[in-house]
């Protein structure tokens, strides 16, 4: 629900297309998302939408779905988005897992959006290993610092990576936000 609670309402309001796990999109359609705006797909599948390729990947996490009436919403996933010779990997809520090396091999992400908060997702030590498995792309840390159990910080991740400059843009945001 923390990832998709607004999807139906935004789809209705903006008329945008919503892509996602087949069970989740089916639940959205049953709860008011117009079917013409829905593109369900599954892990390993790729959807080409307006010249952007979305490939759904594995993730390891729990999954629930309050946003679509509490029905089963499918397994957690990540997604690789490819456009203009760029590749961005959004890991979603996950722990580090060995198949991140396959994601590197198949999709060669230049940017990885990784959770670092710890407690509910991987922490900074696991994220550092995930970056190594992914071929050391630039990193945009997510799922950190929003409430007390999420103790991971970008500066701590930067200390553990072979290329601390990966986190420059996020570290500057930390300084502006007072979280560094």
Characterization of the model:
Helix content is 29%, strand content 23%. It is built from six helices and eight strands. The strands form two sheets. Strands 3-4-5-6-7-8 form a six-stranded mixed beta sheet, with helices on one face. The protein is globular and about 45 Å long.
Name the features.
6 helices; 8 strands; six-stranded mixed β-sheet; 180 residues; disordered C terminus; two-stranded parallel ribbon; alpha/beta
**What's the helix count?**
6
Q: Mean of residue pLDDT? A: 88
What is the distance, rounded to the nearest whole angstrom, between the alpha carbons of the first and last residues?
29 Å
Overall body shape: globular
Whole-angstrom Rg? 17 Å
User: Runs with pLDDT <50, length 5+?
Assistant: 171-180
Estimate percent helicity.
25-40%
**Helix-strand pattern, N to C?**
HEHEEEEEHEHEHH
Strand content is 15-25%
Helix/strand-derived category reads alpha/beta
The major sheet is characterized as: 6 strands, mixed
Across the major sheet, the strand order is 3-4-5-6-7-8
Strands, count: 8
């Amino acid at each position: 629900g923390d990832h998709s609670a607004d999807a139906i309402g935004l789809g209705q309001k903006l008329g945008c297309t919503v892509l996602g796990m087949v069970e989740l999109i089916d639940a959205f359609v049953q709860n008011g998302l117009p079917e013409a705006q829905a593109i369900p797909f599954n892990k390993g599948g790729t959807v080409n939408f307006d010249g952007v390729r979305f490939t759904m990947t594995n993730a390891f996490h729990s999954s629930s779905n309050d946003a679509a009436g509490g029905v089963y919403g499918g397994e957690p996933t990540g997604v690789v988005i490819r456009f203009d010779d760029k590749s961005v990997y959004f890991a979603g809520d996950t722990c580090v897992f060995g198949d991140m090396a396959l994601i590197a091999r198949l999709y060669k992400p230049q940017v990885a959006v990784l959770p670092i908060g710890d407690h509910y997702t991987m922490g900074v030590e696991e994220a550092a290993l995930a970056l190594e498995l992914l071929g050391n792309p630039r990193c945009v840390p997510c799922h950190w610092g929003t409430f007390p159990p999420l103790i991971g910080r970008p500066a701590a991740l930067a200390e553990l990576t072979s290329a601390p400059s990966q986190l420059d843009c996020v570290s500057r945001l930390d300084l502006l936000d007072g979280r560094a």
